[in-house]
Amino acid sequence: MITLLTVVHILICLFLIVIVLLQHGKGADMGAAFGGSSQTVFGTEGPLPLLNKITTWAAVFFMVTSISLAYMSSRTGDGSVMKEVVAPVAEPHNAPIPLPAADGAAPQVPAQGK
Questions:
Q1: Average pLDDT over residues 4-16
Q2: DSSP 3-state assignment of 30?
Q3: Is position 34 within any domain?
Q4: Structural domain boundaries, residue 20
Q5: Which of 12, 57, 60, 70 has an alpha carbon 20 to 30 Å from 51's alpha carbon atom?
Q6: CA geometry: angle at 52 spanning 50 and 53, to 5°?
Q7: Is the pLDDT assigned to residue 67 strictly greater than 90?
Q8: How far apart are CA 36 and CA 20, in angstroms?
Q9: Does residue 71 fall inside a structural domain?
Q10: How many domains does the chain have?
Q11: Alpha helices by DSSP H, the chain
Q12: Belongs to which family (predicted)?
């Protein structure tokens, strides 16, 4: 799910970059005000309303995918690696150490002295 959402997020990001680069700058309308070319294909206002709507929706989808990815990535690390590790049983430090047994004899434990 995260992989699919990441791919969609990257595609929306690239589309948003392209659609922003297609738009005119603020100074581009000044030439048309003094008798420049008219853009009759898109009407009197040109392609700005259509490109503005596309840019707005692309930005909304970009924000939604960004928030979704942030939420999903924060939820993946809920567990701990140490849950399945079993702690070794600690032996007391004062426990006597058995000596190796002789042939057939029981192991001997040294006497503790104070």
A1: 95
A2: helix
A3: no
A4: 2-24+40-75
A5: 70
A6: 65
A7: yes
A8: 23
A9: yes
A10: 1
A11: 2-22, 28-33, 48-75
A12: Belongs to the SecG family.
